[in-house]
Design goal:
Structural class: alpha/beta
Radius of gyration: 22 Å
Low-confidence stretches: 21-45
Distance between the termini: 64 Å
Strand order of the largest sheet: 4-3-5-7-6
Oligomer: single chain
CATH architecture of the largest domain: 3-Layer(aba) Sandwich
Number of domains: 2
Helix content: 25-40%
Number of helices: 5
CATH class of the largest domain: Alpha Beta
Length: about 200
């Protein structure tokens, strides 16, 4: 009889734990569910698009130690680049610096790779689950041609939003997404700005 009572208590405890887990996760949206999750008529999806996109704002970012020690402190250039993207999108795209091991965007400065990478200044490494972007990286190996604006960093961060290289034409020679176009006059095109605002507005 005593064993039977213990079994009942154990069963009740398991039911309580199970219900607790359901309540805890009831408001969570997993990556696999994000496109279809609807809760009593309100769409849980922050950005309703089939385009590749981040599913939240602001995006968190961090950098490795070398960014703060190398070549005139790259942390200021990173902040300036992200602020420019936020400004041209009128605050639709936002960023937040957090000391996380795996933020949405991790900047990794590594001057030792400059020559082994074939004199590449920087590159982006993007990850996603379906059409949802996941924590990604920007590797910085050199400072680029422009000393006044972090055009290289802007270029690579825009890759993490799914923006590809621009084809060379007379009209877009100063487009910041033109491959290897890192000079100070490079600009974020209206097409890119409209694309980002259309998704995240």
């Amino acid at each position: 009889m005593k064993n039977r009572g213990n079994e009942i208590l154990l069963f009740i405890a398991l039911v309580v734990v199970f219900i607790g887990l359901i309540l805890f996760y009831s408001d969570k949206v997993s990556v696999g569910e994000v496109n279809n999750f609807v809760d009593e008529g309100s769409i849980a999806l922050r950005f309703n698009t089939s385009e590749p996109h981040w599913d939240h704002m602001p995006l968190t970012y961090n950098w490795n130690e070398e960014c703060g020690e190398w070549n005139g402190n790259f942390t200021n250039k990173i902040r300036t680049a992200l602020q420019e993207i936020s400004n041209v999108t009128e605050g639709v795209i936002t960023f937040e610096k957090l000391s996380l091991i795996e933020p949405d965007i991790m900047f990794i400065c590594d001057a030792s790779q400059y020559y082994s990478k074939g004199l590449i200044i920087a590159e982006a490494e993007s990850f996603s689950y379906g059409n949802i972007f996941a924590p990604s990286k920007v590797y910085i190996y050199g400072s680029g041609e422009c000393k006044n604006r972090p055009t290289t960093i802007i270029h690579e961060v825009l890759h993490l939003f799914g923006i590809g290289h621009t084809e060379k034409t007379e009209e877009n020679l100063q487009d910041i997404m033109f491959e290897k176009k890192y000079d100070c006059k490079a600009y974020i095109s209206n097409e890119t700005i409209d694309y980002l605002k259309g998704i995240y507005n």
